[in-house]
Amino acid sequence: MGGLVDTTSIAPLTLRWRIHEGQLPLRQRHLRSLEPLNLPEPLMGWIHERLEWAALNMLGSDTEGVLVLNIDPAQEVTVLLDAVREAPALSREDLLVEDGLIVGAQSGGETLEGTVWLERVDGTLQASGERLYTATATLASDLCTTLKLPLEVKPQSLEAFDSAAAAFLISNEFGFIAIKDNPSKPAPATEKLKECFSKLW
Fold first, then answer.
1. pTM for the model
2. Residue 148's CB: how many other CB atoms inside 10 A?
3. For residue range 60-114, what is the model confidence (pLDDT) as tens digits?
4. CA distances from 148 to 48, 77, 141, 151 (A)
5. Minimal CA–CA distance to 193: which of 151, 131, 132, 153?
6. What pLDDT digit, counting tens, does each position of 144-181 carry?
7. Phi/psi class of residue 99: alpha, beta or left (left: φ > 0; alpha: ψ in -120 to 50)?
């Protein structure tokens, strides 16, 4: 890849994608999620090549793990297989807030990849972000369409969190993670998404 394109302006990133029974669920969604990053074509080709290599050399039919994709445009793409981590317990204090709006969640000082979702008391789901692009987030959005669950995608405030019937994180690594200390109110839409994600891995 070296010398093919000028990649010095592209920041390195790390992606953690769950492996289940030797397969990468949502593979095509994962690859489509890279499109908004506007990575150079040679770099995308290198990513595809490394994923094919990992499938042939790192994954058995019963492999459970997390595929860690380190993309450093100035050097190369590396792929590692990490152990499955226990999903963290999340609460209001773990929310990441910028300018009064929820932008994500963290655990133990580590920023977690994923989008925070809320369910209003009227049953409307709210994904706190400008848009949805990760594999699990677009899957959740498509499930909302299929299940006829109303969905809004826009940044949400802590006040919205406090009045919500439920809150959760949708993550490529962990899937569905409840955010525990919300008011105890019926949240049927949340339960439907939780059930769907429980079947993924």
1. 0.90
2. 7
3. 999 999 999 998 877 788 999 999 999 999 999 999 999 999 999 999 999 999 9
4. 34, 39, 10, 9
5. 151
6. 999 999 999 999 999 999 999 999 999 999 999 999 86
7. left
| pLDDT score at 43 | 87
Q: In whole angstroms, give the CA distance from residue 49 to residue 192.
A: 36
Q: What is the helix (H) or strand (E) element at residue 192, kind and residue range?
A: helix 188-198
Q: Which two tokens stand for residue 110?
A: 């580590």
Q: Which residue has the tokens 């394109």?
A: 5
SS3 35: helix
The pLDDT assigned to 2 comes to 33
CA dihedral 184, 88, 197, 151 (to 10 degrees): 50
Burial class (CB in 10 A: 0-12, 13-18, 19+), 140: buried
Beta strands (DSSP E) in the chain are 13-19, 65-71, 77-82, 95-98, 101-107, 110-112, 115-119, 125-127, 151-153, 166-171, 175-178
| Token reading at 22 | 């030797």
* 3-state class (DSSP) for residue 129: coil
Rounded to whole angstroms, what are the CA distances from 40 to 2, 36, 159?
12, 11, 40
Higher-confidence residue: 68 or 46? Answer: 68
User: Two tokens at 185?
Assistant: 């109110």
The residue type of 158 is L
